[in-house]
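Example: Sel1 repeat family protein.
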Amino acid sequence: MASLFRHYLASLFSPAGKLAYGLELIEAGDTRRAFAALTAAAAAGIPEAQFRVGRAYLDGAGVPVSREEGARWMQRAAEAGWVEAQFVLATLHLFGLGSAGGGTMALFSQAPQQETARADFIQAAYWAERAAKAGSPDGQALYGYILTSGPEELRDLEKAGHWYRQSAAAGSAQGALGLGLALLARAEDPEIQQQAAIELTKAAAGGLATAIYLLGVMTERGAGVQQDLAAATNLYRQAAEKGVRSGQARYGLALMQGRGVQRDVVGGETWLRKAALAGDGEAAALIGDLYAKGGDLPPNYAEAAGWYGRAAEAGHAAASRALGLLYLTGAGVQRDPDEAARWFRRSAEAGDHAAQVDLANLVMGHDGVDAEADRVATRERFEKAAAGGDLVAAFNFGVCLAEGVGVERDERKAALWLRRAADGVVNAQYWYGRMLAEGRGVEVDLKEGRHWIARAAESGMVDAQLAYAELLLAGRGGDRDHAAALEMFERAAATGNVNALFSVGAMHGGGHEIPENRVVAQGFFRQAAERGHAKAQLMLGRYLARGVAGETDIPQARTWLQRARSQGNAQAEAELARLGEPAAAPAEGERPAAQVVRSASGH
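Written out as structure tokens, the predicted fold is:
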């Protein structure tokens, strides 16, 4: 109290005394009287007082909030050389004279920033550079951010790295995060990944949510740090609790799957729901899958439709397709083929190849009293949209012409429309390539057909990958290349395609221009066999019966051969006879049934 009185007396005689008195009042919690004292000192030209007054206006401390007045006083303090004011002023310009309360903490956040006015990157860069050169770690981090993420004319990644390093070396968590992100952007080798992980660890220790999340991603993948699923999940939890929606989604998924943490379906759904409500389309799609497929939670198609709709509106292609399927079947929503077509179209336009086919199949498979009229009407819609330049519609119109859906079959015209659509629609590339290879509506041209099928394959269409691999194997339409064929089969197999899994096994099994590896072959045969592929079941049975891959298991071999036989594979009958089993008809119920459920999220 005595100190406060002394400062009060001093404030009566000097601006510096008014500043000291104002600061002491702030410490005492009397912001209203503090503001009055600081204003008097600021008016006398004391830079720190000007900064404090600007801060008070921005924070509403002892005075109503005023961004304009806050910026005006910050400008005066910054021009007088007060470094912290220069940093805050740069932040104000960067966010369009919005609140500077978050400082650089907000710069690297994944949460979208609320726009209050247009950002002025030129002024932001000017004041951030002054603060950086004056030694402000926060100013250095801010300037690095502007040089990294600002307009093209301001970008200078090399200079940004310099300022991030300066900031990080001074102990700034924001500088460490910026440096970590800069390193990740060019992390082409493990050493740079390790350096990035070190910087992100520093930033995470400073409580930066984005750093915690990114460190979780690196820990999950083993990039720059030792792979540790439990540690990664713990980092996702921390990021989730700090409001990082991607962290919420990954933590929710980890809980659902019991990956790195004890399985908790209800808790997982709760975190996924938080992420989805925050705008994470992938999380919304996952919840849709959860309710559509049932299992841990009872199926609820109405709930699934709501979440798929949220994901679809966020641009999630597979969720758009899933929503279309619900409308097509009337599950959880009123059956509406037109609405189904709308969502199939949106998914197709976003690049979902299956949706492009679904849209065409919706036309070709439409049955009922008015089926033909519906097919004609749909074909007419496709034709009209195609004439207007819609490439997806051009593809579907081409399919209608090729298959005689709602119109007389005309493969020549079909080929013309498919060629037009092939410039932008992957499925059209595949269809057109097949027509060229088979001479449907055009002269046979294996070389050109292979070219178009290859384009579709490179874009990720599984059917095209399988077809292109077969062309590479046989050397049709171009050079024979078994190594490239294997790569294509492997890419298709990575999606779980059963025929691709079998083909990879067959290639590794020998007789092709790649190194033989029977152990790998057996592994792929097993994957295909478990999915119901009869020939894979035969091959797996043979391998196990004869110990081809070094493992002999007669009981298991017999089981797989019996499954192959139950699907009508005659060779399996002969293999069973070699094992001493008499020919017999498959037992009732022995024939396996496979149900493939495609999730919207791809998980």
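The two ends are 65 Å apart (CA to CA).
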